[in-house]
Amino acid sequence: MKKLTEYAYAFESYRAGHLFSGNPASLYEPMNYIMDLGGKRIRPALVYLGAEACGASPEQVHGLALAVETFHNFSLVHDDIMDAAPVRRGKPTVHLRWNLPTAILAGDNMLVEAMKMVLEHGVQTAQIASLFLKTAGEVCDGQQMDMDFELRSDVQEAEYLEMIRLKTAVLLGCSIGMGALAAGANAETSGKLYDFAVSAGLGFQLRDDYLDSFGDPAMTGKQPGGDILANKKTWLWIHAFNHLPESGRQELLHWKSIQDPSRAEEKVQAVKSLMHQTEADVQLAWLSDEYYAKAAAILEPLDISAAGKSDLYALLDFLRDRTH
Predict the structure, then answer these.
(1) Of the four listed, 16, 41, 92, 194, which is most buried by Cβ atoms within 10 Å?
(2) What Rg do the C-alpha atoms of the chain give, in angstroms?
(3) Residue 40: what are its φ and ψ, rounded to 5°?
(4) Is residue 241 predicted with pLDDT exceeding 90?
(5) What distance in Å separates the CA atoms of residue 94 and residue 246, rounded to the nearest whole number?
(6) What pLDDT is recorded for position 33?
């Protein structure tokens, strides 16, 4: 999507003039490091899209775009600590590049900096801050649910959908909602745009799950079956476990217990075969498309600019059709 490239360039240009700095430098260097690792910049783009759809320019909401991306990266720093992850976007994670206490403090300070940026925005500040804080709490709820699931064998598909709504989708909703509010949109319009982005976000995360296990590694750039090897309870895994006969469940649990790196490919293929038996991959693709269709239905009657609506439809197409 050409607009995403344009927004990413605008965002990076703004961020280059607003790097984190202070004393001690050892606190601020990790904050810039994680931000420099890049990413799709979907959240800043949604701030810009929300603003433009409701009559404001991207230049008017640069601070909010940086706030949501700072918050997102704060959550990644802490997620990597909780997951004991060694790599983020091909580079050492913050807690390994520096140390655990520094990573915790850097993440904490990113949350503080994000909140400061939100409060510095002069239009509908109270409403924007309320939405941001509500979302921040929900993201934490979602992360705890995700960790709790690792200790359970009875997780249901609906629970997983609620977890990814909180952990991922609500921040996308917050991003576009903040952009709309900053442009002076009323509560109804900003709320509908929020709902649009949450539905798109659910489709986005489900598509991520699908691509991790069934995508082309040459396109995704990821290790084939990374979620399977990490024993993550994705929607695919949960659906397979809940719909297999007892013998299939035991086989799935058996492969979950296998940690031998030399059997990684065998494990991935065996688990994918079990998922195929329950048509988990087909059902997931259908469910993802359903969320995109719901997002489109929310968007269609909205009284926003024609150009803004067209850009949001283009974003949906991009997210639905992506291969990485």
Answers:
(1) 194
(2) 20
(3) -75, -20
(4) yes
(5) 42
(6) 97
